[in-house]
């Protein structure tokens, strides 16, 4: 086997990022042969994304969200919610009523936190 060299790239600017770079996994669709791969973000693009979403007061919807999304969600008053029993969800404003059948979800690493309760940081934090 020859030399193997692979590194992740930022999904926005294409710059190489470290193996532990913040990432999100988009939702796939019925035409996908395999589940989508995670998309990585460099630090500069995370800053730009945060500025954009702060300005427009919404958050992107990913199947598995990035750490920077969670940080922004808490800052902006969003929490994860989805149809009861569903394994997927999206960001919803905590001060707005949920659509019928939707429930606030537990976020892994944030068990015990509630949309309106005290927020405690998990072990790792995006930069
Ligand atoms: Zn980038």
Task: Quote the distance from N terminus to C terminus.
Answer: 37 Å
Oligomer: single chain
Strand order of the largest sheet: 4-3-5
* Strand composition percent: 5-15%
The small-molecule ligands in this entry are:
zinc ion
Q: How many β-strand stretches?
A: 5
User: How many domains make up the coordinates?
Assistant: 1
Q: Looking at the structure, what is the overall shape? A: globular
SSE pattern: EEHHEEE
Rg, please? 16 Å
Structural class: alpha+beta
Tally of alpha and pi helices: 2
Largest sheet data: 3 strands, antiparallel
Query: Low-confidence stretches at least 5 residues in length (pLDDT < 50)?
Result: 123-127
List the defining traits of the structure above:
alpha+beta; globular; binds zinc ion
Model description:
By secondary structure, the chain is of the alpha+beta class. The chain has one domain. The chain contains two helices and five strands; from the N terminus they run E-E-H-H-E-E-E. Strand 3 and strand 4 (90-93) form a beta hairpin. The longest helix is centred in the middle third of the chain and has 14 residues, at 43-56. The protein is globular. Residues 123-127 have low confidence and may be disordered. The site of zinc ion has 7 residues, from helix 1. Zinc ion (ZN) binds at residues 10, 12-13, 15, 42, 44-45.
């Amino acid at each position: 086997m020859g030399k193997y060299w692979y590194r992740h790239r930022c999904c926005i600017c294409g710059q190489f990022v470290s193996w532990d770079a913040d990432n999100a996994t988009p939702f796939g669709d019925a035409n996908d042969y395999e589940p989508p791969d995670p998309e990585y973000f460099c630090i500069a693009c995370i800053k730009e994304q945060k500025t954009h979403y702060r300005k427009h007061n919404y958050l992107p919807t990913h199947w598995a969200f990035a750490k920077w999304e969670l940080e922004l969600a808490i800052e902006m008053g969003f929490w994860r919610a989805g149809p009861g029993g569903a394994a997927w969800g999206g960001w919803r404003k905590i001060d707005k009523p949920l659509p019928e059948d939707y429930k606030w979800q537990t976020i892994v690493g944030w068990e015990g936190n509630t949309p309106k309760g005290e927020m405690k940081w998990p072990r790792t934090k995006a930069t």
